[in-house]
């Protein structure tokens, strides 16, 4: 914990050139003179007797510092993800104040790469992102020994590349300890069993017991004994107290609580419940989504598609037109088929009549360890809980005349706008999320930047619900939560940041959402850093001319 804090502190104070805290100062430049390396960064004596320090590659101009601080000032993170870091950012001084240890933890692993990607050179940003990825892998809930063996080599190479960028004074003992962290994780196991966060929280709790400053030990002992008694009584009486209360975003995820919910859409609603009536188009879209994803109707879906293909006019229809007719009329055909006397089971009969048009509407919902809020609910909040992502199997066409569609998994990113609960007349219940979906098929809606970050654009939406064939709804159990950071350079684009719930562990199914996608898409920046660099370590032509000069008195 302290290693990560000190490393992040060194980076932030050095790139922002904080007075008295930066590792790049006159003394560090004189160390370069004494060591006889990096002569392009040696201080030069001016005629007035002062020293002039040439700008380095990691130096930032005033505009870049403002952009860096603006990204951290405007970013909104998830609930129980971190503290409000925007309160620690000063746009006037272009500095960060009063950061706690956990704030540095969040900055180092997630927010610092996002803030640097638009205001720092690619060489420096790639190396810092690689260091962030190493920290993210080491702090994972589940560790892979083979992966940690590779991280051990990556850590050594990353520190070597950092030595080509930052001055020798940057590499304190804490920075050097990074090379030992992967091996320590291999020997000791997951880090969160051994770091200092629980211990410091417990010490803070003991400190709060001190009511009488004249007898601190007695106050702590009395407070600790009282809490132990309360814990025993709460467990013996089986009542919920603040000592055994479940975590904030657990929700009602037990399927035995209410078996009337379809598609595992059981959860815990938040806020006031509204009773509303769906319009015809929204009712059809919500009901149709339930029908298309129910296993009991798969055979009937294939039967109706075969009927559409066997019509005489279907020879002139392409596959896309058949899919459109199927989406528009399947619910009507199903209702007519069931009530015409065809033999179907009771489950299909209940589904064919459709849900009640009067539904329950929520402004928040806890599901799968995530706390979801509608975009309207959090418009005045400092947290962001409306970002969602869904992995869907779709059929795509190469052109309008393409008759051979291709199926594939596509990730759709969206903003949650509405939460409704369908009621199939007391037989079943289904919770659906309605979202504003970004276009995932073209570069206008989703792309990857040079560092591997996924970026989305919500200026052009798809499946808005205006057309009958649109699909604005998804099941609450299908979505995962993400949050977005606005790109200060590309107007309308947002950087996607992922997260996993606190109580979710990788049990070997290959899901590693706690490792962001940049770890897999960003190559190790060895070639970028070694490009056009002399083979000897005494010459580095990485000097910027667009930043302010530093003048020191002799």
From TrEMBL:
Domain DUF4218: from-to ranges: 138-249
A UniProt-annotated Pfam family: DUF4216
Species the sequence originates in: Gossypium hirsutum
Highest rank taxon of the organism: Eukaryota
Gene transcribed to yield this protein: LOC107896213
Domain DUF4216: 420-496
UniProt xrefs under InterPro entries: DUF4216, DUF4218
Protein's name according to its UniProt entry: Transposase
